Amino acid sequence: MIVALTDVQAKMTYPDGSTEAMNFPAGAAGWMDAVEHLPENTSDQPMELIQVELKGT
């Protein structure tokens, strides 16, 4: 789960080399399945968020 504290403009890069743009406004909440990823802030402003990653057993 992710809750954006600031506007978020990011690029996610996955192990297979594919990428995905992620953009959402401050206050937005979202969910994505657990997956390895490398986030990159593509904005010229700081990106602040709260992220909770649930681990499987």
Summarize this, please?
The protein is an all-beta fold and 57 residues long. It has strands at residues 2-4, 8-13, 19-24, 29-30, 38-41, 49-51. The relative contact order is 0.42.
- Could you report the average pLDDT, rounded to the nearest whole number? 92
Could you describe the largest sheet, including whether it forms a barrel? 3 strands, antiparallel
* String of helices and strands: EEEEEE
Given the C-alpha coordinates, what overall shape results? Answer: flat
Question: Low-confidence stretches at least 5 residues in length (pLDDT < 50)?
Answer: none
Number of domains: 1
Distance between the termini: 18 Å
Number of strands: 6
Helix content: under 10%
Helix/sheet category = mainly beta
**Cα-based radius of gyration, to the nearest Å:** 12 Å
Helical segment count: 0
Name the strands of the widest sheet in spatial order: 4-1-6
Strand-residue proportion: 35-45%
Describe the structure.
With 57 residues, the chain is mostly beta strands. The chain is built from no helices and six strands. The protein has one domain. The chain has strands spanning 2-4, 8-13, 19-24, 29-30, 38-41, 49-51. The chain has a three-stranded antiparallel beta sheet, with no helix packed on it. The chain has a three-stranded antiparallel beta sheet with strand order 3-2-5, with no helix packed on it. It is flat. It starts with a strand and ends in a 6-residue tail after the last strand. The model has no long low-confidence stretch (mean pLDDT 92).
